[in-house]
Specification:
- This protein is an alpha/beta fold and about 325 residues long.
- It folds into 2 domains: about 5-140 and about 220-315, 3-Layer(aba) Sandwich (Rossmann fold), CATH 3.40.50; about 140-200, no CATH class.
- Helix content is about 40%, strand content about 15%.
- The chain has helices at about 40-50, 80-95, 110-120, 140-155, 160-170, 180-190, 205-215, 220-245, 275-280, 295-300, 300-315, and strands at about 5-10, 15-20, 30-35, 55-60, 105-110, 125-130, 255-260, 285-290.
- The protein has an 8-stranded mixed β-sheet, sandwiched between helices.
- Strand 5 (about 105-110), helix 3 (about 110-120) and strand 6 form a beta-alpha-beta unit.
- Helix 2 (about 80-95) crosses helix 3.
Length: about 325
């Protein structure tokens, strides 16, 4: 029998939206941590990855300050530490709701930063963590992705793009001139030149993010208002902290750490991942490369990604 729970739950003083779907609640719970911060993804998970219901109960969550979790959030609570504590509270709620001792966590981009922080600080109820579009260092990340985009624009003879990039960069400690607006200039141009995905249909921000949200039917009008108002607010407030974040500070973990990363990723550059991963200690760890993928190998190579996800997580107990 299908279980479908879509509601707000109290999380550290804020009502936050979750949507959990299961064909069999005896299966392990898999919680998705979305990116951004502030960029919700339950529409894409519950549409594109519903085939994972053969192996998991799928849990999605709008993080503090965006989407269905927009209302009642104070600016000074939008910190990495607070969202880590929120994630732990959601994990505990899922364990209680589905009678589990541990669950699986998967996070992409910002979600990979949040997942690593969660696995390090609160390993008790985590059976394993899977990261993709893996974040390592905010400062190094932005220096590399900016230079990639500038070099690509110059090689293409795109004088307008070069002018725009030179106006906003190079970033200093992960920050662009113009803050949020400067970063969005770089991100849109990075996508245009293939740093997000080699698939040309995924190189446009509107087509990749906005249209799928609108057409999904997943979000209420109040959720949409939270998305529109929240993603920019959350990014603007949190980015200075993210820009100075460096995951090399977190070296020892008490849970298995798996990273499924796209070789072509220039959003969170793949070149930073291998050295960081080699330096961590965990009961089990594995780095798997997706040669034809960019920032989101789950979308670029979905069959291989999900096949490996099922296989690798089946080795760990989430009961």
């Amino acid at each position: 029998m299908t279980t479908d729970i879509k509601k707000k739950i109290p999380v550290n003083g804020v009502m936050q939206r979750i949507h959990v779907v299961s064909n069999d609640t005896s299966l392990p719970v898999l919680l998705f941590l979305h990116g951004g911060p502030g960029v919700v993804n339950r529409h894409s998970v519950l549409a594109d990855d519903k085939d994972l219901l053969d192996s998991f109960t799928i849990a999605t969550w709008d993080q503090r300050g965006t989407g269905g979790s927009y209302s009642g959030v104070k600016a000074d609570t939008l910190t990495i530490g607070q969202l880590t504590e929120d994630a732990e509270a959601v994990v505990e709620w899922l364990c209680k709701e589905f009678n589990k001792e541990k669950i699986f966590i998967i996070g992409g981009s910002w979600g990979s930063l949040l997942g690593i922080r969660l696995a390090h600080a609160h390993p008790e109820h985590i059976a394993a963590f899977v990261g993709f579009g893996q974040f390592v260092s905010g400062e190094k990340n932005e220096a590399i992705t900016y230079q990639f985009t500038l070099d690509a624009a110059k090689a293409a003879g795109d004088e307008e793009a070069v002018r725009k990039l030179e106006q906003v960069g190079p970033p200093v400690k992960g920050m662009y001139k113009g803050g949020f607006n400067g970063m969005m200039v770089q991100r849109r141009l990075m996508m245009k030149y293939g740093g997000y995905s080699k698939d040309e249909e995924k190189r446009n921000y509107i087509d990749s993010f906005v249209k799928p949200m609108i057409l999904s039917g997943e979000y209420s009008l109040s959720d949409f208002l939270g998305i529109v108002l929240g993603y920019k607010k959350v990014l603007k407030i949190m980015w200075p902290e993210i820009g100075s974040e460096d995951l090399t500070e977190y070296k020892t973990f008490d849970v298995p750490i798996l990273v499924f990363d796209g070789k072509l990723d220039m959003n969170t550059p793949a070149e930073l991942v291998e050295d960081w991963f080699a330096g961590i200690e965990a009961p089990n760890k594995e780095l798997i490369w997706f040669e034809n993928s960019g920032h989101n190998p789950m979308g670029d190579e979905p069959e291989r990604f999900k096949k490996l996800l099922r296989e690798k997580l089946s080795a760990f107990s989430a009961e």
